[in-house]
Every structure is written in structure tokens, then in C-alpha cells.
Design goal:
- The protein has one domain.
- The protein has four helices and nine strands.
- The protein starts with a helix and ends in a 6-residue tail after the last strand.
- The longest helix is centred in the first third of the chain and has 16 residues.
- Strands 1, 2, 3, 4, 5, 6 and 9 form a seven-stranded mixed sheet that branches.
- Helix content is 25%, strand content 34%.
- The chain is of the alpha+beta class and 182 residues long.
């Protein structure tokens, strides 16, 4: 083994542990406005997620999330037995040419009974790698405008991978934050 191979393997392992994905060395670095536009261009009316500008109360400049609050999608998420809302908040760090992201998962369940109503909620924040929220083996199929068919099983990667690809292809680094501020 060469010293270069060992060094690059060690850096790659450290990047993986630290949640860092780097662009190819030959990728052109685009301005932040074009990176933002590329991320927002992932939106499709037929997709079960939405990418939106961060607003008041949001931590990121952009937020990607499942459309669980959208009544059009209620039956899809109900059939998939999705009980958790998954969100990716993104902040542009122009100085370091990177998009910092943090994952957040929330769940809420209600119970109605003879003695009244009760609810239980939970929230987790950080870097998440969940395989699936659903117990069903049948995926939801999205038929895109260009005739492309997407199969969703509502894994966290189905929401995060397109975001990461847009950032990396623009020559920027993707940094997942395990805790702390974006």
C-alpha cells in the first residue's frame, strides 16, 4: 500500500464518521444561489416530499420534509403506516463552501378512550440513518412528469440522497451535523 492510499482511506473514513460528503475534485464550484436553485429544482408535485424555503421557527435556509401535513398525501402516508415526520434542515455556509444539514424526526400519537383523550410525542435531532418507517413491503410509486417512475418506501435516504447529489454536483461539501447548531 502506498502512503497516499492509506492517507486518503483514513480521510474517507473520518469523513464518513463525521457525516461529510465531498464533491469530486473536478466539480466546478457554483455560487450559493445556483446551489439553492438546484436543491429547490428537486421539487415535483408528484413527489411525497417538499423542499421549501426556511421560515420563522425553522433552523435552516431550506427545509425538506415528507408531505405528511398535506391532505392530498394523507392516504399515502396512512397506507404506508408512516407515524413519524422526517425533516432535513439545510444552511448554506458560503465561507466554507458547504451545506450543513441536521435531521429531525418527530412522532405524535393520539389515543381516545372512555376516560378521555391522551397524546404522546417524541422528537429526535441529529444525524439519522433509518432504513424504513413502514412495515409494509409495498412501495408507493410516483409517476414523474417525464415518465420516470420512483418507488418510495419512506427511508430517510430517499429524501436525503437527492439533496446531497444536488450539493455535491455543484462542487459544494455536504456536512451532516450530529448535534449542536446548524
Amino acid at each position: 500500500m502506498t502512503a497516499e492510499f492509506v492517507r486518503s482511506s483514513a480521510v474517507g473514513l473520518l469523513d464518513f464518521v463525521r457525516g461529510i460528503k465531498r464533491p469530486d475534485s473536478n466539480a466546478a464550484v457554483l455560487p450559493a444561489e445556483q446551489v439553492r436553485a438546484a436543491i429547490l429544482a428537486i421539487n415535483r408535485p408528484t413527489a411525497p416530499f417538499i423542499i421549501r424555503e426556511g421560515g420563522e421557527g425553522d433552523e435552516g435556509d431550506l427545509v425538506a420534509e415528507w408531505r405528511v401535513a398535506d391532505m392530498q398525501w394523507h392516504n399515502v402516508f396512512n397506507q404506508a403506516r408512516l407515524k413519524k415526520q422526517f425533516t432535513v434542515s439545510m444552511r448554506f455556509d458560503v465561507e466554507n463552501v458547504e451545506v450543513r444539514s441536521v435531521d429531525e424526526q418527530r412522532s405524535l400519537s393520539w389515543k381516545l378512550g372512555v376516560t378521555g383523550a391522551s397524546y404522546q410525542s417524541s422528537k429526535a435531532r441529529g444525524r439519522m440513518y433509518q432504513n424504513s418507517y413502514t412495515l409494509t413491503a409495498t412501495p408507493f410509486y410516483e409517476h414523474g412528469e417525464t415518465g420516470q417512475v420512483y418507488a418510495y418506501r419512506f427511508h430517510t435516504s430517499e429524501l436525503k440522497k437527492p439533496l446531497q447529489q444536488a450539493v455535491l454536483s455543484a462542487g459544494w461539501t455536504w456536512r451532516s451535523i450530529a448535534g449542536g447548531k446548524l
